[in-house]
Design a protein that fits this description.
Layout lengths: L2 H17 L2 E4 L7 H14 L3 E4 L4 H8 L5 E5 L8 H14 L3 E5 L2 H5 L3 H15 L3 E5 L7 H14 L3 E3 L11 H10 L5 E5 L5 H10 L3 E4 L2 H9 L2
Parallel strand pairs: 1-2, 1-8, 2-3, 3-4, 4-5, 5-6, 6-7, 7-8
Helix pairs in contact: 1-10, 4-6, 6-7, 7-8
Length: about 230
């Protein structure tokens, strides 16, 4: 095997390893079934960690693709201010429709009001509804102070959620290196990190994975890897 071919194989392996940590995402409000099918086909071909799709598409995707896909969806999205009972109902319906993972948005107003215990209790309630299914908690860092971000790290940890997630991608900003580093200082050992929002280059993806993120949410990763590595 030539050095050029060997290097290409190594790059291809690196790209596929990165994609195994990607929640391949399509959450645009005007996403068509054709858009969702394209997403799912890419996720199956490149073995992404999941597809993250609107709740309204879960049942159709599950019936179409079955166990070929790990389906992730969003709850209280993107503004977070649904009441807890409504968020629980969203979780229950999503799981019944075939979803495997839940990304919930905290009540950002409660965070800004300093009602950290209330936010923690909501996360705990949602995790109970999720059971053994993975729960990722979106705290929407672009709206929070450093103190509030640290408080959310503690709330997510204490409530028993599986991941803390930076952003919805619909706020005024997305994931940053600084926020991931802050998370690492304040989360408990059982909590993983998901970066999302504005992850638009392979350099972004590589940076967040090297920083210790277990998941990255983006719609662009498959296309970028295809373009650079020819996979």
């Amino acid at each position: 095997m030539s050095e050029k071919v060997s290097a290409h194989k190594m790059q291809e392996g690196h790209s596929r390893e990165m994609l195994s940590h990607v929640d391949h995402t399509q959450l645009k409000p005007y996403a068509t079934w054709e858009d969702i099918q394209k997403l799912c086909g890419e996720a199956i071909e490149y073995h992404t960690a999941s597809v993250c799709i609107p709740p309204a598409y879960i049942r159709r995707v599950h019936e179409t693709y079955g166990d070929k896909l790990n389906i992730c969806t969003v709850v209280g999205f993107p503004l977070g201010y649904s009441v807890t009972r409504v968020k629980v109902a969203e979780v229950e319906q999503a799981l019944a429709d075939g979803c495997g993972e839940i990304d919930m948005v905290v009540n950002i107003s409660d965070v800004k009001n300093g009602l950290y215990e209330k936010v923690e209790q909501e996360i705990r309630t949602i995790k109970e509804a999720c059971g053994s299914h993975i729960l990722k908690v979106i705290i929407e860092t672009c709206y929070l102070t450093e103190e509030e971000k640290a408080a959310m790290c503690r709330a997510v940890t204490n409530a028993g959620a599986d991941y803390i997630k930076t952003s919805t991608g619909f706020g005024t900003g997305g994931a940053t290196k600084q926020d991931v580093e802050l998370f690492k200082k304040h989360i408990g050992p059982g909590v993983k990190i998901k970066a999302a929002g504005g992850v638009s280059t392979l350099e972004d993806l590589e940076m967040f994975l090297e920083l210790g993120c277990d998941r990255v949410g983006t719609s662009r990763a498959v296309g970028l890897c295809r373009e650079r590595e020819g996979i």
